[in-house]
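[scheduler] slot 2 assigned
[scheduler] job type: sequence-to-structure, two independent chains
[scheduler] chain ordering preserved from manifest
[runner] begin chain α
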Amino acid sequence: METDELVDAVTRLVGNGVQRYECCEDGHGAGHVCLALSQELDLLELIEGISNRYGASRNLAMCSYTDPTVDATTGRPVLTPFDADVIDMRAWAHADHWIGAGTVRVGDDIRHVVLVAERDVPVVEELPGDATWVERVVAVTGWAGEARTVDWDAVEERLGTRLPSDYKQLSEIFVNGAFDGFLSVYGPGCRVPGEDFVEHAELLTAYSSREGRGPWEPHDIYPAPGGLLQWGSSEQADEFYWLTEGDDPDRWPVLASQDIPDTWTRIDGTAAEFIFRMLTERSHPHSMARYYDTHWFESYEE
């Protein structure tokens, strides 16, 4: 199979709803399936093709060294079939599946491999009762990406307002990507076009100054008193704002809209609570729990 055909085959496996995989490879157990592929295939091209569809990969092994911190929540299922014979391995999380691509040692030979493995639901119940909403989002997605540092003093000075503390944590941990391939959180310095938090806020301010309230009726755009400040959007043109009412940004409610006039939904809670409930509660107005039992964060970082 060519690269595009292999990526399509991966997508069919991920989307076929199989509850239990059985691999046909000798010595391999259940819980995954390996795809047959030519050893002449350009593995880097294949990895790029999978990344274009499923976001950036996690690097689990390189030059026969496997990251000792990898566990079931961060990609261990794609390593298990090959054990100590793994040379290089990348992994992608998508709903209740892991996708793996890399090279392994088979006797005296080195082979390219691509597999799809089952992904367990990240455990949230073990979190302490006083866990923050950000910690709950990390737990339910199983995210283990490297956090970044943001100069929040500079960001807030440029905007002219303090920002909610949980949002700052979210945008440091979840960088340039989307939850369940659906909801993106805008962050300062985000490289995804249109999702730099500060630039987007300034763009909406300039637009509303020229055109008025427009699509935000009956609300104004920040920096108008109590105006809307956007922190995210969805693949379905939903938009997520804070209603900047009051002096305490940690108490700003979330105001969500769909791509339909006058479809505002106010939810009293933080952005992190909104995301956690969106991922886990079927009754949430923007619920992803109706579609997925297992949730993930898809990073667009290189």
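[runner] end chain α
[runner] begin chain β
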Amino acid sequence: MRKVLIIFLLSLLFFILISPFRGEIITFCNLQGVQTSSIVGMIGYYFITLVLIIRYEDKIPKLLIIISIFLGASIFSLPLYIFDLKHNSTSFLEYIIRILSILLAFLCSQIKTKKSRVWFTIISLNVCLWLSTIGYNFWNYKLAYGTFRGKVSDDNIYNLTFDIANNTKVSINEFKGKYLIVDCWFTYCNGCYEEFPKVQQLYNKYKNDGTISIYSCHSRIESYNENVSTGNEILRMKGFDLPSLSVNIYDTILKEIGVKSYPTVLIFDKNSKLIYRGDIDGAEKLINKLTMDR
């Protein structure tokens, strides 16, 4: 029992040691936060598991070793995901990679030849590395926009109506025959402001193209005394001349379309069907492709 406790404590200690990476205190290869702790954690837990199996497999069943390591790696994280996965979903992939590396190390320990173990380790770590970098980006995109790369196949025609100045409204159907790009944002979103220059550049590029309309859409919070003009006033104050629309942030149509985080860029095709929901970089790539193909 003492050896099992030692294994558990070593696993727990390593989890604590990589916490600074998780808190974005340390940057590694231009990565930080969960991505960094994921890479460090998967490498560490893989080799820790192999070393502990080699050290104790003659004294403790391998399965018990793995369970002890798993508990040390999970005792603080697992309760968060069980009781509140929604608010901890960003780091959930890191936890999965951590546990995967432990299981892969266990499988590696079952391999008899040294050469095969080396190849299995290289492949395993590369799989975990892909999940920690590219896979993590896909994961975050899915959480934010409901898609892995932004493209949407949606045959619905949404009855979305925007407010503009002078107490007038414009329906999405009025943009039929054009590609409509809408940058959805709200007042208290720092990331939204950071993307304004990119949205402005895209607008400048296509503002004279009769087949593309680009708008900034402010999701106003009326309980904070925001009105139809608030978004336009903010844009002008910050030096942008993007045409501005407004919509109530609690508009049910926004939820139906899938706007659940900000900023979110939407692209509707010439039939007013949603074809993209994602960030401004992906929107620019898609609209560039669409204009090249026509």
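[runner] end chain β
[qc] chain β: The chain has twelve helices and nine strands.
[scheduler] slot 2 released
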